[in-house]
Amino acid sequence: MSPEEFDKETVAKVFANFAEKFMFDTLPKNLKKYVGEGAATALIFNIVKEGAKETMGEELKKMIKVESLKDAMKACYLPYKLVGMEFEYEEAEEGDEYVFKVTKCPHFKYTKDMPFACAACAAIKAGIIEKLEDKPVQIVFKGTRRLGSREPGILIEVVKHMPSGDPYCEFRLKELPRQGQS
Fold it and tell me: What confidence score (pLDDT) does residue 110 get?
């Protein structure tokens, strides 16, 4: 069979499923085994964020017009929709924050027993949003673990997390004043 005979949509889904399994199952299991959960979380975040920023962020920047932080976050979910992964979320605005509640997540089948693997999801968001908004991003997991920039322009707080027992994942996004601004 020649490459021209392959259905591009099917090939895209196969590759997306490979990437999903790799980022949320194979990579976290193996890194945890060799370097421990804490180091694995940091490595996954840094590696996936760089890759997401340089690939998905770059391509999405060409494809869509982003007028707000809300648009940038919605762009993070577009690739899942395009390859047909089961994914559902609700969005709202509360004061100066954008709130996204993910009620159906394609990663959950892997992360339900390995919550730290969600660092890959956070990294995808951070990489895409950094590229689209041109501001450094910091992720805060349930008020405890911080990943990303130490001087963020955008803060994403994970306040609810399905793998930790919550009924959905909730992300709260807000832009922060630059150092020296108020």
Answer: 94
